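User: Sequence recovery, please. Input:
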């Protein structure tokens, strides 16, 4: 059971800044959905999570104004973490509000 759970998500990126709680992206291998989340900087307990509005997220960054930028590669992956069906890949670049997780821009 623990091995199966370990394969359900993979951490893609994390942003750590001394003035805010860490932000990360996770990709769920069994259904391809991705999420961004915020963790408490002292306990690392998950405080909030939101949709990245795509699949296969790449490392993330904060823009100068504060929103989180996530590059979604858009390629589905197998449980063995191999990309497939690349002709239907839907890449995107999104900006998310770090306080609410709401979508600010999609492109």
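Assistant: Recovered sequence (107 residues):
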């Amino acid at each position: 059971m623990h091995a199966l759970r370990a394969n359900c998500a993979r951490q893609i990126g994390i942003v750590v800044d001394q003035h805010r709680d860490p932000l990360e992206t996770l990709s769920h291998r069994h259904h391809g959905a991705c999420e961004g989340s915020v963790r408490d900087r002292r306990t690392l307990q998950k405080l909030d999570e939101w949709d990245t509005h795509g699949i296969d997220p790449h490392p993330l960054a904060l823009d100068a104004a504060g929103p989180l930028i996530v590059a979604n590669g858009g390629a589905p992956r197998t449980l063995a973490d191999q990309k497939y069906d690349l002709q239907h890949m839907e890449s995107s670049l999104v900006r998310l509000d770090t306080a609410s997780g709401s979508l600010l821009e999609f492109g």
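Residues 1-8 have pLDDT under 50 and may be disordered.
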